[in-house]
UniProtKB/TrEMBL annotation, chains A, E, F:
GO terms of molecular function: ATP binding; enzyme regulator activity
Pfam families: P-II
Keyword Phosphoprotein belongs to the record: yes
Source species: Nesterenkonia aurantiaca
PROSITE patterns found in the cross-reference section: PII_GLNB_DOM (PS51343)
GO cellular component: cytosol
Record's protein name: Nitrogen regulatory protein P-II family
InterPro entries xrefs: N-reg_PII, N-reg_PII-like_a/b, N-reg_PII/ATP_PRibTrfase_C
Any one Gene Ontology BP term: regulation of nitrogen utilization
Keywords tagged on the record: Phosphoprotein
Modification O-UMP-tyrosine, positions: 51
Automatic annotation (TrEMBL), chains B, C, D:
Keyword Transport: yes
Organism: Nesterenkonia aurantiaca
UniProt record similarity statement: Belongs to the ammonia transporter channel (TC 1.A.11.2) family.
A molecular function GO annotation: ammonium channel activity
NCBIfam families: amt
UniProt name for this protein: Ammonium transporter
Length: 112, 407, 407, 407, 112, 112
């Protein structure tokens, strides 16, 4: 099994979720994150004082998939999340050494 | 028996006082919304507690110091209204009771002190604030109030126009806030933005309503002047909003909502000394100018390096001056005073200019100077600034609570 | 000298105006709370700025167009009250001044325009809104106001009952909002839910208080009708709440808090034309029916595919019609008008039905049609809709700020 | 024709009613802010819907039961004011109409029931609350109201002082809330803290303003007593705040903002029975004592193991008793009543002590007992508590919505 | 060392924390996440319009443990977090290649 | 490539970001988390009732770096995040098996 993590634009969550569902990925976990990279933060002016935010809102998705599907899933995410503008984010894969479904106690790939 | 006009007057002043009371949570939300999440509660506490601390001293000796018999024009006799003893019989047969007067003036004193909390934002010990509020009211507001509202030397000798406290309330608190901010020095972390603009809007909206009671109530009854000043107050608030937003649009390309709210207050502050002294056009123009001018003042004030982040100085100090000076040059009102009011450009006498400048100068210098001295002396004796560690987590460290828990 | 009743009247109208002013932040919070977090500020700005833009034109020519001398029943003379010049002397000796009248009517005009912001939610350029608000007031509200409140052809020739602006205020803004929404087309992303129900509740509560001033103030003084309409307004708001909740309970199994708040406003809108024309039972029943009916209207309106998401159409448009028609059929009030009011079911004349239908029809068609034309013409000339990119991040893109920062 | 005093009186009572209406969203926000995020909406719904449910029964038979002709001192004749039929003519020629009276008293009944929602926090079925509110008003408030405000046995036979409802409103609701909480049993999860102190502050601030209408309106007009009680109400709220904070500072080392807000309400509750019976010093001292005492009561109440988490018992029950007893011992007011009021320590008659103790005892025992019985009987017949599963996610499960969505 | 990650029902945070503490696990890091899987999102109706949330609130826990305790810790979490209903979540383990305690600079298992 | 994860004090985000930027680390992802460890939670008193929070606010940073820089980056973070008081947090490293930049589709270390 692999854990695929994607940091993407906030408004791409819906299309990515949809694309994954179509590929048969049945579950994922999402969280709000703040990112920083080549893309600059933004400025808000309050009564003439400027507040700069270094970080920009992004969304992080974690999906566990069988090792053999990892490549395909990454491609799906990349395709669905791409706008072509700077700040589109990254997708990475990491190894897992175990997985359990809490409800049933199933182990390994069955638990996905 | 009271006259019939007076009976109706009481009905309106009771109302005016009631809505002025709502200005306190209004101001607390206005300031608290502009604070970062870590010092919302402290801001609330500073603004609201004046209704306890200042009220007590106002009842004991403040009312006497403001409107009591003048001791040489300097200060009213503090003993004159000690707890209203001897004044309670007035109004028993109908008409005004002195109790209403006392309550109304108490609110004036309290709100003036509350505005100054702007200058203490995010870095003053709460106990120090409590002490400061009492000392400031006694040494700054009561004398100024006496000079302007009572029989003090200023109102007796100088020809100036101040309808409802542009000097003693707004300039005093604006320059007081500046003095306090200078004495305290800036916060360590200036990178906090207003945490909730809905609270700011709500606060500004409540303040606007309260201002109807403030300015309309200063007329002393349900009379011509009340109806007149309610109108001018409405109009100046509306165009103050546009003036501030227009300035922002011009400078940054975007009109903001904080600017909108600030503009309302700027317009209201500016109309306070002028509410009975401009006609409808004048109110519209004054509001707009005040909004734009205060917007500009916020910008250059930011460059002074003084951390008076809620801008009481720009809004109340500068805004009050704009309103007062507007009357001098463009005043026009025919029936609100015994004699028609005419600004210099409309045939008025230039002498008003000197009187007004004196009143403004005295108020601003006195308020700034004495505030700074009070703060510095207090700092030497009791250390009024919080520790660096407390500053990072102010609400929790000073009040043991945090504002929100959305879990 | 003024009569003693008039002196007391002034006291109450000053109050009424003061609380009506709070309806603006009330409406801003009501609408803003229902918006998604990304367009709270824009909603605030649309609702509040009418107090600047519409006020200016109202003072210049609006008051004349509404209550000035009628030019053939079509429109009032715009020059009649130009900046109140020549009207300032009224009330100098006590009693009503025209300034109070002007201020009160200004608020009516402003709030009507503010309600329409519902139809622009989340997708209109802010500059376009500013221009639209001025044009709409001039072409839609001032004529309708003249026909209903002034000496226009409608009030002169048609026998209909409208106590406090069910037509010119509520139906006009409700159908205006619909027209604007149709002209703008739907937002791209409809999946935003109300971001803060506490703001919605607060807004509804403030509006209810303000409505006391609105309906009670329309009585023109502290008289029998004011006391009567305050009562009916209280009752109809209370049962409007229950009516909406009952409908939801019936349809979904759960009564919601957004429904509760919407029901309050529905009941208040419905009682506006009827406040002096129903007895206590009538007020209770009318409120309930209006609440339930508006709940139902929200549902089928959602199916029309028009993105008028804050439901000014259902609440103000449909709610206003329900109230007006209720009077026709079930009106019952004996002492509020020169002659007792009796609905058709209580022995009243059926002719009222035709008059009422004409008034409603004229208002709704005129408001919808002219609004749509204004919006379309503006769109051709200046493009009133924001870009797709701006729509996703509206507050920041239009106003340069975001509503919250809880960090 | 009405007398001129009465004309002015109407103006003020219209106002008083208007601001009292805002107490409902004020209380909803005060309670809702203190709730956890998962039961904000339910709290709103419980507080607000009394304006529908209780209003209906008040109009049908409640007003008769409270102020109608007394049936043997036990209860007023329920048919006396059935929908105001036969009472509408009053005031047609000017002066008070009975409609205003009805509306004002309706609000008293509704707010009393709303306060009790404190005892149901987070665990009562909403339908059960709706039923409970109607039964409670009928069996507890209407009788108590009759005994205290009407011609009931208590006011006829017992010599006690209660200016504006310390007994029938505050002690009744405080002990009612306790009774309901005991009958319901504690929530399963007690680990929720107030989710938004800004809402709490706003609620407290609105309540304070509303209290001006409540206490000032009880004077019945724009008279001496109104002006007097407005003053004492202002002062006691201010020092109530300080009293609560002082107690916290002493106990925990930090004065909190929830404490500040609670202290305001404690001071206001305590001044309610005493507003016309203390002088300015008395009001200041009473407020402070009440604030501190209620702070202490919150602490030991927490130890009783009763989950009455919004502390209506401590604030309204205990606070009301403190105010009433203060008058007995320290009352001092010369012109507010036909005879000067003097507490026992100032030469007053000790008989007042017994009368007051009887009034308090009757109210508290009756309210607690009958409330408990109502709740228990209802529980047997319809099961008033939500399921454990619903309790975890109350707003969604009962009302189908959640309070916030900041995404 | 292993990093154990658990995505569980929100109201299970307390029992899981307690169970881990009893097992001697002395630290953990928690974050609010949104999950999606076999369990469907929920609907809220606002004035007749239905808003569906695809995602449901879940809580994520990260705990670093010595490799040998990984199995036991996973079991503890599963036992404490289980309700038996759909949506109970997953627990997975991933390898770590290093750990430092910021305060002291300690490295490896000592830093846990 | 390595994924470096740091859980640090909230107010250390700015210095850590700055220190990393100076080292040439051009991107990172941040999220708000709640932590629990040797450091105890805090108590707030509301009207005499005490609410204890088991968890304390912390900030989590995720940075992907070329494997050879991992050690140095960890040291940078530790240096910048250290206050010496309890609760300073942890930094750990985990292996990655792949990385893609969404905007360009670049793979591996080039995507960092
Ligand atoms: N080295 C990194 N480690 C972890 N997250 C990163 C890294 N670089 C970028 N990110 C995340 O990816 C997001 C997009 O990166 P950015 O450099 O702005 O644009 P792009 O990926 O299009 O070049 C950032 O906001 C951040 O959340
Ligand atoms: N493949 C997956 N990758 C990552 N997280 C997942 C995955 N599947 C499920 N989850 C997480 O686990 C939670 C529960 O999963 P779900 O399928 O609804 O129930 P169950 O685990 O009981 O079968 C989801 O809400 C989601 O946060
Ligand atoms: N075993 C662990 N697994 C995951 N996170 C941990 C672990 N231990 C501590 N943490 C995180 O590190 C933070 C600081 O740890 P703590 O033990 O309080 O202080 P210190 O690291 O200085 O000894 C915690 O708040 C928690 O977020």
């Amino acid at each position: 099994m692999k854990l695929i993590t994607a940091v993407i634009q906030r408004n791409k969550l819906e299309p990515v979720t949809k694309a994954l569902a179509e590929r048969g990925v049945g579950g994922l976990t999402v969280m709000d994150v703040q990112g920083y990279g080549s893309q600059k933060g933004r400025k808000e002016v309050f009564r003439g004082k400027t507040y700069e935010t270094t970080f920009l809102p992004k969304t992080r998705i974690d999906v566990i998939v069988p090792a053999e599907e990892a490549e395909a899933v990454i491609d799906t995410i990349v395709a669905a999340a791409k706008t072509g503008s700077i700040g589109d984010g990254k997708v990475w894969a990491s190894p897992l050494t175990g997985l359990v479904r809490v409800r049933t106690g199933e182990h390994g790939p069955d638990a996905i | 028996m009271a006259e019939m006009q007076e009976l109706a007057d009481v009905a309106w002043i009771l109302t005016a006082l009631t809505v002025v009371l709502l200005m306190f949570p209004g101001l607390a939300l206005f300031y608290g919304g502009m604070s970062g999440t870590k010092n919302v509660l402290n801001m609330f506490a500073m603004v609201m507690t004046t209704l306890g601390t200042v009220t007590i001293i106002y009842v004991l000796f403040g009312h006497g110091m403001v409107v009591g018999e003048s001791l040489g024009g300097i200060i009213g006799n503090p003993l004159d209204y000690f707890g209203m003893v001897g004044h309670e019989e007035v109004g028993v047969d109908g008409g005004f009771a002195e109790t209403l007067d006392l309550a109304f003036f108490t609110l004036f004193a309290c709100i003036t002190v509350s505005i100054i909390a702007s200058g203490a934002m995010g870095r003053m010990k709460f106990s120090a604030w409590m002490v400061f509020s009492v000392i400031w009211a006694t040494l700054v507001y009561f004398p100024l109030g006496h000079w302007v509202f009572g029989d003090g030397w200023l109102s007796a000798n100088v020809n100036f126009h101040d309808y409802a406290g542009g000097t003693a309330v707004h300039m005093a608190s604006g320059f007081g806030a500046l003095g306090l901010a200078v004495a305290l020095g800036p916060r360590r972390n200036l990178q906090t933005r207003p945490h909730s603009l809905p609270l700011v809007l709500l606060g500004a909206g409540i303040l606007w309503m309260g201002w109807m009671g403030f300015n309309g109530g200063t007329a002393g009854g349900a009379n011509y002047v009340a109806q007149y000043t309610i109108m001018t107050t409405l109009f100046a608030g509306g165009t103050g909003m546009l003036g501030f937003m227009a300035f922002e649009k011009f400078r940054d390309g975007k009109a903001t909502v904080l600017g909108m709210c600030s503009g309302i207050i700027a317009g209201l502050v500016a109309i306070t000394p002028a509410a009975d002294a401009v006609d409808p056009f004048g109110a519209l123009v004054l509001g707009f100018i005040a909004g734009a001018f205060v917007a500009w003042a916020c910008t250059w004030k930011a460059k002074l390096g003084v951390d008076e982040s809620l801008d009481a100085f720009a809004v109340h100090g500068v805004g009050g001056i704009v309103g007062a000076m507007f009357v001098v040059f463009f005043g026009w009102a025919t029936y609100t005073n015994d004699e028609p009011i005419r600004g210099i450009f409309f045939g008025g006498d230039i002498s008003l200019l000197w009187g007004e400048l004196i009143a403004i100068g005295v108020t601003c210098i006195y308020a700034f100077g004495v505030t700074w001295i009070i703060a510095k002396v207090m700092d030497k004796t009791m250390n009024i600034r919080v520790s660096n560690e407390d500053e990072e987590d102010l609400d929790f460290k000073l009040h043991g609570q945090t504002a929100y828990d959305y879990n």
